[in-house]
Design a protein that fits this description.
Pfam families: DUF2007. By secondary structure, this protein is α+β, with helices and mostly antiparallel strands. The protein is built from six helices and six strands. Helix content is 33%, strand content 20%. A hairpin with a 5-residue loop joins β5 and β6. The relative contact order is 0.15.
């Protein structure tokens, strides 16, 4: 029969950073805890759903207090709209911004829309493999821009 000093699983996190934030909050409140699967998910993030993510463990006697601390202030989401981009007037010179919505949640890579130019079309026909141009893609509104 599990006693008050037995270790229990408390919460699972998709990213190691969010798990470490929760661990730090609990340790600041004086609740001892530890993480498991942190290195595996850090090295192979695609395995996070398979392994159950980064797991936070506490003592049975501290479980209720730990849940109250974690749920008192929500942890930041892994992805989502950039709230600061709507408040800032001047664009950040390092981080590209979407011209449609102003979000900085953009990535540069193969375009998802049909962006074939003359050379891309010619190479696609010759290689029998689609060769697409690279553009910025906004994950907030779905806009693609150069």
């Amino acid at each position: 029969m599990p006693g008050p000093d037995s270790i229990v699983f408390l919460e699972s996190f998709y990213e190691p950073m969010a798990a470490n934030l929760a661990r730090t909050r609990l340790e600041a409140a004086g609740i001892p805890c530890f993480l498991s699967n942190e290195n595996l998910v850090g090295l192979l993030p695609l395995y996070s759903p398979i392994t159950g993510g980064v797991r936070l463990h506490v003592r049975q006697s501290d479980a209720e207090a730990a849940l109250a601390i974690i749920r008192a202030e929500p942890l930041p989401r892994a992805t989502g709209p950039d709230v600061a981009s709507f408040e800032a007037d001047a664009p950040d010179p390092v981080t590209p911004r979407c011209p449609r919505c102003g979000s900085s949640d953009v990535a540069y890579g193969p375009a998802t829309r049909n962006t074939y130019g003359f050379w891309e079309s010619l190479l696609s026909v010759l290689l029998r493999f689609p060769v697409r141009g690279k553009r910025f893609h906004c994950f907030h509104c779905g806009n693609e821009f150069a």
